Amino acid sequence: MSRPTRPRVAVVGAGWAGLAAAVTLADWVDLTVFEAGRVAGGRARRLAAPASEGVFDNGQHLLLGAYQHCLQLMRQVGANPDTLLWRVPQRLEMADEFCLTLPRLPAPLNQLAGWLGLRGLSWAERWAWLRALLHLRRQGFTVPATQTVAHWLAEQRQSARLVRCFWEPLVLAALNTPLAQASMQVLATVLRDGVAGPAAHSEMLMPKVDLSALFPEPALHWLRAQGHATRLANRVKSLLPDADGVTVDAERFDAVVLATAPQHLAALLPAAAQDWLAPVNKLGYQPIYTVYLRAQQPAALPQAWLGLAGEPWGQWVFDRQRCVGQAGWLAVVISGPGPHQALSAETLLQHTAAMLNRRFPDLRAQAEGRVIAEQRATFSCDAGMERIHPRSPWPRLVLAGDHVAGPYPATLEGAVRSGAHAAHILEKVLNC
Question: Per-residue DSSP letters for 299-314?
Fold first, then answer.
């Protein structure tokens, strides 16, 4: 007896959202994954570089223990998080100014110990910080959708120093959006899951490998082993959906998960999709620059990654040698808009090296390396923003991506959750 014909499904985009959708669908459909680039991973991937320089990513990504969907999918495709990720207690350290560590204790003891061990704040500031978090907990981590982080912080009487050393670095790291614009509700969700939840959820997970090797490439290998097609360097030009399926260029599929970057959606879809795409067309975007520098003594940094409060040329510095074994390299992250956007790569390298050497004289950072400028690294996670629903006007076309309606900002977990959700929507449509 021949096997029943399985639905043919295309996934357009092999970023983390698209691959999450593909892996979730793989057991019961025949898949074809399309990816315009030569390397999978979307906005969290490995970049091409000379072999002599090692491996560069298009940005730096930390995961949290709360990222359960990411971790589950990694395990499903044979990428063991226990060997591919460093797991350390959550630590927010701003060089020479502030340090918060949540030790490995059952919640909420880890949070109490973190509060007692806070460095760099007066007791009055500590109480103000604790009162703000307790207030948020009493509200069930729910605030008005239109409230900005800046407005909430003013209500909670957070000092300028507390804002500069804790809240601003946290918001830029999590939401990549200035405080005056950033959604307090989304930040509250991040705090609920990553700080106020079980102790294991607050732990920080640092990749030991490049970002493509962490999940995207294991996912592609796993999909191929299941008999599914993966087409890299294959840019889709148009999608024509109807009630019975979707034509991808000239190829017919029973359904499609569309998981490209949001700025590409309008060009792929017919005019009838424009009303549905209205929230996407209104999205703002925020940049992230990663400045890769050589250093003679990277171990001069007190830990593998460190915050730099109040600096225009970087909020975070990562020792790539201690993180992924890339000897002699540092990665400095500049989140959001700023004066760095008007500089040439050469000038930015000089400014960044000078900043690091001023802060850490033994580091001996050199003004040589490369600058990765992602002008649309994330959507702007603004208060009151409308996010697009994954269901399109055509039941067999669904959307996936970190910008799609969901509780999280532009994170790997948000992307993966969106991809899995899109797959579950299609499962109901195709099996009805």
Answer: GGSSSSEEE-TT-TT-
What pLDDT is attached to residue 52?
58
The secondary structure element, H or E, covering residue 11 is strand 8-12
DSSP state for residue 315 in the 8-state scheme: S
Q: Which residues contact 386 (CB under 8 A, 6 or more apart)?
A: 279, 282
Q: Which residues, given as ranges, of the chain have pLDDT below 50?
A: 1-2
Segment 138-163, tens digit of pLDDT = 999 999 999 999 999 999 999 999 99
Third-level CATH fold of 285-379: Polyamine Oxidase; Chain A, domain 2 (3.90.660)
User: What distances in angstroms separate CA 137 from CA 103, 175, 182, one per listed residue?
Assistant: 20, 20, 19
CA distances, 323 to each of 46, 130, 200, 209 (Å): 15, 32, 20, 8
- Give the per-residue pLDDT at 53: 66
| Alpha carbons 305 and 83: distance in angstroms, whole number | 19
pTM of the prediction?
0.93
Tell me which amino acid residue 8 is. Answer: R
Longest CA span, the chain: 75
Q: How many CB atoms lie within 10 A of CB 366?
A: 17
The confidence score (pLDDT) of residue 2 equals 41
Pair 394, 241: CB distance under 8 Å: yes
Instruction: Look at domain 8-60+210-283+385-430 and name its CATH class.
Output: alpha beta
| Range(s) of the chain covered by CATH 3.50.50.60 | 8-60+210-283+385-430
Strand partners, 40: none
Residue 325, pLDDT score? 87
**Locus of tokens 């570089």:** 49
